[in-house]
Specification:
The complex is a heterodimer of chains A (about 425) and B (about 100). Chain A is about 35% helix and about 25% strand. Chain A is an alpha+beta fold. Chain A folds into 3 domains: about 5-70 and about 100-170 and about 285-365, 3-Layer(bba) Sandwich (FAD/NAD(P)-binding domain), CATH 3.50.50.60; about 175-285, 2-Layer Sandwich (D-Amino Acid Oxidase, Chain A, domain 2); about 375-430. The longest helix of chain A is centred in the last third of the chain and has 19 residues, at about 320-340. Chain B is of the alpha+beta class. Chain B is about 25% helix and about 20% strand. Chain B has 3 helices and 6 strands, in the order αββαββαββ. In chain B, the strands form 3 sheets. Chain B has a two-stranded antiparallel ribbon. Chain B is globular and about 35 Å long. Classes of the chains: A alpha+beta (about 425), B alpha+beta (about 100). Chains A and B meet through β11, β14, α7, α8 and β15 of A and α1, α2, α3 and β6 of B.
Chain lengths: ~425, ~100
């Protein structure tokens, strides 16, 4: 590394959280160094495809005008699928709440904002250790080089190699994380707008549950980009691994994504499309359980995925806005600390307090029951199966169409599940979703 | 499953992998240290890039197609699989994700 020797703050990782912190600290006049392991910013980023705008505007009010927004989400769809049958609900939004884009592009924009504010971003640097002496963080180490700073912000992402070394977190459990596998399909914007019935610059977000995951916990997602469609599956790793070991899952995950792409209901939306990229990443499933023992120590703050700040509500996964806001809160706490004698443990405590007062923490708490749903195959097998079957009784009647309630009762009976148990289970999780 | 269909599936994954871009490091960043107790089926089926496969009676890991997701890391102990990020910006180079 050919880097000046001392900084006010080093940020590890140029993701959404790291860039937000770096931008706000640099804007306040502090000397900030961002170290990114990838080549260029964004080369290691993969997400579903949708970000909530308002929290991002809290940091960058110019977001709507400047950010690389592909499409504003104007429609949300939810489908339960079983076999070739599907039951779909669509909601037309009334305002600009969320947008789609490539995260690779979005973080590039965030990093440029930080650079323009005065932060130094250096890529291709793999930080291997946070250097601590006598309980105080002194800087970071990469290879034989040590770079010193008064404070370090750990924004290393979901694979928390540095925090594990520090002893602030345990190794991740398969039951606390999920695997996302994604394909990007290139498609003419005109076809995207025709097929999904969208105006120009409008987009669609689609969540799918059912046998596309072979009954495993998890689901599928579809997002329309400017001239492509992102599709993929999210599978909690614990249940998927157990299914693989029991022989219940026999196919490679890429085959599941492929079956989703070729599914008779979905494929007509992108039939000419070509796969332009394929990839995967791990995501957080049980945010609160992943929170480090402490979000701060003498000279250190933890933000974004590294801190477990990703909210999974079961039908949406919000990680980028929570990352950005945690980056903002960390920067604010750090600026306060710098102005009040330095980033000591005592002075950085306010970060944890700010987080606990923010929507990040209340959202994590509100949706913490999602773990019960995610570990119960009932919701991923029986619910979609019965719902689709009931619909088939209503809509595929040659002569006699059953009454609505009868279609559900019969479907439940044929699938051998008790309606009472279903209502009980749904009622129990309804308060948690 | 006939060998022909399974071969087709493997080819499909290989074809998919050609759509993504890597700058592969000469040095491996992930390594199997110990075969004992590895969750073989889970690693083979869940590594999204198909980096894990059986050769003879051993599980092998081909790091070239790795996207650094961490799935194999959480499915094993640190004395079973050594797991690091590639250095110098090497590894997967996502463009449209």
């Amino acid at each position: 590394m050919n880097i000046p020797s001392k900084f006010d703050t080093i940020v590890v990782g140029a993701g959404p959280a790291g860039c937000a912190s770096a931008y706000l600290l640099a804007k306040a006049g502090f000397k900030v160094l961002v170290l990114e392991r990838g080549r260029g910013v964004g080369s290691k980023e993969l997400w579903g495809g949708k970000a909530y705008a308002q929290p991002l505007r809290d940091v960058w009010p110019e977001l709507d005008k400047e950010a690389p927004i592909h499409r504003w989400v104007s429609k949300e769809r939810f489908s339960l699928v079983w076999g070739e049958r599907a039951l779909t609900i669509e909601y037309k939004l009334g305002r600009k709440v969320a947008f789609t884009t490539y995260l690779t592009e979005l973080v590039n924009w965030m990093a440029r904002k930080a650079e323009n504010a005065g932060a130094l971003i250096v890529d291709e640097v793999r930080v291997e250790e946070i250097v601590v002496k006598d309980g105080k963080v002194l800087g970071v180490k990469s290879g034989d080089d040590i770079v010193y700073a008064d404070a370090v912000i750990d924004a290393e992402g979901v694979n928390r190699l540095l925090l594990e070394k520090l002893g602030l977190v345990d190794k991740l459990s398969p039951d606390h994380v999920a695997l996302g596998v994604k394909e990007v399909l290139s498609l003419d914007p005109k076809l995207i707008e025709e097929r999904f019935m969208l105006n120009r610059n409008e987009g669609l977000a689609w969540f799918v549950a059912g046998d596309i995951t072979l009954g495993l916990p998890g689901g599928g997602f579809i997002y329309t980009m400017r001239d492509s469609i992102s599709i993929g599956l999210v599978l909690p790793i614990g249940p998927a691994a157990r299914a693989a070991e029991k022989g219940l899952l026999k196919e490679h995950v890429s085959s599941l994504v492929e079956a989703f792409r070729l599914h008779p209901y979905f494929r007509s939306f992108w039939r000419e499309a070509d796969v332009i990229e394929y990839g995967g990443r791990m995501t957080i499933e049980a945010g609160l359980k992943l929170m480090p023992r402490k979000l701060y120590m003498n000279g250190l703050l933890v933000v974004g995925d590294a801190a477990g700040f990703l909210v999974n509500t079961g039908y949406t996964i919000r990680g980028v806005d929570t990352a950005v806001i945690s980056g903002k809160l960390a920067a604010e706490a750090l600026i306060d600390a710098f102005n009040n004698g330095g980033p000591t443990e005592e002075n950085l405590k306010s970060y944890e307090e700010k987080v606990k007062k923010s929507y990040i923490y209340s959202e994590l708490k509100n949706h913490s029951g999602i773990g019960d749903v995610m570990s119960d195959p009932f919701f991923f097998q029986k619910i979609p199966q019965v719902a689709v079957k009931a619909a088939s009784k209503l809509f595929e009647a040659d002569y006699e169409e059953p009454k609505l309630i009868r279609s559900f009762l019969n479907a439940a009976k044929e699938e051998n599940i008790s309606l009472l148990k279903t209502i009980y289970k749904l009622g129990r999780v309804a308060g948690k979703l | 499953m006939s060998s022909q269909t399974s071969r087709l599936k493997t080819m499909k994954l290989e074809e998919l992998l050609q759509r993504s871009v890597w700058d592969v490091d000469e040095e491996r960043h992930i390594e199997i240290l110990k075969q004992e107790g590895l969750r073989v089926n889970a690693l083979i089926l869940l590594c999204p890039m198909g980096c894990y496969s059986i050769a003879g009676d051993k599980l092998i890991m081909s790091y070239e197609g790795c996207v650094e997701c961490g799935t194999c890391r959480v499915l094993s102990r640190s004395d079973q699989i050594r797991w690091e990020h590639p250095k110098s910006g090497r590894g997967i180079q996502y463009r449209y994700m």
